[in-house]
Every structure is written in C-alpha cells, then in structure tokens.
Amino acid sequence: MKDTLRVVVVGAAGRMGQAIIAVANSESVEIISKLDQGDQITSAGADVLIDFSQPTAGDAVCDAGLKTNTPLVIGTTGHSAAQRKAIESAANRLPIVLAPNFSIGVNALFWLTEQAARILGDSFDLEIVEMHHRLKKDAPSGTARTLAEILQRERKTTRLRHGREGMLGERDPFEIGIHAIRGGDVVGDHMVIFAGNGERLELTHRAASRETFARGALRAAHWVIGRKPGLYDMRDVLGLK
Ligand code: NAD
Fold first, then answer.
1. What are the structural domains of the chain?
2. What is the mean pLDDT of residues 48-61?
3. What global pTM score does this model have?
C-alpha cells in the first residue's frame, strides 16, 4: 500500500486537471489545493506540485517549487526555449518530471520508434502525423516533438518540415515531416511512418481517454519523491532507460 501523497494541481479546472482529480483517490493521492488562472501558485504543505495548465504558468510553477523545495511533475506542453530553460534551471535544485505524454503506450511508442529507426537505417523517409481535439492550443503536440527529437538523434539531422504546400520539389531525403491535424474531441493520436521502397512501417498510438495520462502523472508524482535534483521524463519513471 502506497503512502498517501499530498498534491497541488495547477490547471485544476482544465480537462487534465479534472482527470487527475477524478482518479486521485484510487492512486493514493489527496488533492490539497486546486489552482487555476488568477490564483496565486503555491506548493506550501504539498509533497508534489502537478502542472497541467499553459506554458505561461511555467515560471510561477518553478518559483513555487523552489520556494518550498517541492518536487514538480509538469505535463504542460508547448514551452518556449526560455520557459524550458527556466525549468532546466529549477531542476538543478529540485527533482522535476517533465513529460509531454504520461501514457505507458506512448512511452513504448518512443522506444519502438528509436528501435525502428536504428533497424531501418537512412533509406526510409520519416513522417510524423498527430491528431488532437479542436481546442488544443499548441502544434505540433509535445509528443510529436519528442518523436521528432528521437528520429533526429537517430538520423543525425535537424531538418524538420512542418506541413507542405506549393511547388516544393522532390522530398528532401534528410527531412522529417510533421503534420498536425485538429478536430472534434480526439484525445490524442500519433503515427510515425517509415516509408521505404516497396514497403512501409507505421507505428500508431491512439489515446481514448485522459485517464491514462492522469494515472501516469500520479505514478510520476509517487516516483519523484526523494529523488535527487534533476530533470526526469516518463522513461525514467517507467525504468525504460
Ligand atoms: P485545458 O485548456 O482544458 O486546461 C488548462 C487549464 O489551465 C485551464 O483551466 C486554464 O484556465 C488553466 N490555466 C491557464 N493558464 C494558467 C495559469 N497561468 N495558471 C494557472 N492555471 C492556468 O487544457 P488540457 O487539455 O487540460 O491540457 C493542459 C496542458 O497539458 C496542455 O499543455 C496540454 O498539451 C497538456 N497535456 C499533456 C498531457 C501529458 O500526458 N503530458 C496530456 C494531455 C494534455
């Protein structure tokens, strides 16, 4: 039986905030404070602060954690380079789990993508397609960005092509295409396509509910307690590294 964790949720009125509140009890978590836009962000009295809001809250989230020495679990996506730097700098003093996707299936997809890229080599064209609900604000998704980073690392290329339009000429063999589709109430689909001559491999993950992200974030919250300062991701939590 896990000890009950005392957790502050930032973005509590949002879709993910509500999903976390809904499963908290069954994951041995007590939500001691539900913060949203307009509230002063503080982690006083909490074991962990969980953030699923907007990137603009990032600085206040880090300041709150640093002030009370409270570990952070950050699920918010779309941080700018400067906002990301602030999180990295806070991670010099706090353990922080920052993950664009807390589902186990997507973290398996990250691993499979790395393996497929290694096996297939340079002769396969790489494309990433993601689809999300019409209310999602950032594009491409944080998960698609992570998939791109994995492929860039394996392919040793930095060329990302965000969508295509017009007379672009033939496909650059070194580019990685990324396509963001928006519509309806889709929770989150991601597909990585490896297109070769005469064959094509597609790795697809579809999330059907936000519960999987919420349970993953709470698992990360239990895991981060007592860790050394540092920036961790879900692969650390799941022991996939
Ligand atoms: P949402 O728009 O439904 O909810 C966001 C909430 O944050 C809103 O209630 C909003 O009022 C609040 N908010 C905005 N700015 C704030 C601030 N400065 N301080 C406090 N609260 C603030 O969005 P959502 O679908 O719940 O997603 C939230 C974030 O989580 C997005 O960045 C999304 O991409 C990300 N997300 C991550 C995962 C994951 O597994 N890591 C999964 C789903 C969504």
1. 5-98+210-238 (3.40.50.720), 104-207 (3.30.360.10)
2. 98
3. 0.91
